[in-house]
């Protein structure tokens, strides 16, 4: 049985709703849901996962539909959960509401779900279908899947360049991109869990790496500094009470420097490898253990090159300035593996948003004792799928 135009429109609406949870629900996935009266057809309830630990998208949509949900269809961007986490199973709410058909865009890869939710519904007599708008749903859950299956955060590489391209910014420019582009970057900063820079960028720019104005998240500010060069008097260290700082270093760092950073309130993490690609992978694995879901990598050029070479970039935001070429793709000609997803004009700049698609490995992320891994960076409670 194929999907109708109404089915497609309803799932597209669910995808739109899911996006409203960006920056608010991580490490859970963004999820949207629509309840429809199958007889008319018309929407009778909508919902999305609005905050970590809050009601699930399906529960919100069913509550808004009320008695009109009975006999209807539920469209949801991710398979409903079937276990007790922070909230009861969504499958219980679906059955109690009298839903007769569930259309899920994609299956949840979490080991506590993984098709079990859909199987439970089908066993109870609910018609179950999957695959509608699957590409959009997979894009929504990319960070969630990356944390679950790659054991590291989703990495967004950001840089600005001239029309001639390249990862490095031209010399002598304090601001390469426009005010509008910078405002967009600050909004992105407020939606991620961590911002990563190399020690060269930290020394040259003495950045704050904060979102201004503040967003829904306060990102962990991470400096990769294997040689112990970050100044104790830097703005990053001086503002550690306002936003956390993690300095990722090596055993070669001066113990007195490490002690001084820790005394100032910074978190210092000592890695075990000095190889550039392996070092970066090790840092990202540590951020994954801390349940960071989205990471923004802001540079410099050497760090970005290392990330691309190691296959650790999932998404790129490239701001092209200085009278961009007619073909914006020419500006990223030297970066392999990027597929342009969108091109947007922002004042005098062009923003290229690109992806680095690669297949996910098989198998969920669980701890060595078989339990789910929790976050030790913040006051978040142990993670469970969508709540």
- Per DSSP, the total helix count is 12
Q: Which blocks of ≥5 consecutive residues have pLDDT under 50?
A: 364-387
The count of β-strands is: 14
Alpha carbon gyration radius: 22 Å
N-to-C SSE string, H for helix and E for strand = HEEHEHEHEHHEHEHEHEHEHEHEEE
Terminal Cα span: 32 Å
Within the largest sheet, what's the order of strands? 10-9-8-7-11-6-12-14-13
Helix content: 25-40%
Question: Major β-sheet, in short?
Answer: 9 strands, mixed
- Overall shape: globular
Strand content is 15-25%
Average pLDDT over all residues: 88
Structural class: alpha/beta
In brief:
This protein has helices at residues 5-18, 57-65, 90-97, 116-123, 134-140, 142-149, 179-189, 199-205, 235-238, 255-263, 276-289, 301-309, and strands at residues 32-37, 42-48, 73-76, 101-104, 127-130, 154-162, 194-198, 220-224, 245-249, 267-270, 294-299, 315-321, 339-346, 349-355. It is an alpha/beta fold and 387 residues long.
Tag the structure with descriptive keywords.
387 residues, 9-stranded mixed β-sheet, 12 helices, 14 strands, 28% helix
Layout: helices, strands, pairs:
Elements: H1 5-18, E1 32-37, E2 42-48, H2 57-65, E3 73-76, H3 90-97, E4 101-104, H4 116-123, E5 127-130, H5 134-140, H6 142-149, E6 154-162, H7 179-189, E7 194-198, H8 199-205, E8 220-224, H9 235-238, E9 245-249, H10 255-263, E10 267-270, H11 276-289, E11 294-299, H12 301-309, E12 315-321, E13 339-346, E14 349-355
Parallel strand pairs: 3-4, 4-5, 6-11, 6-12, 7-8, 7-11, 8-9, 9-10
Antiparallel strand pairs: 1-2, 1-3, 12-14, 13-14
Helix pairs in contact: 3-4
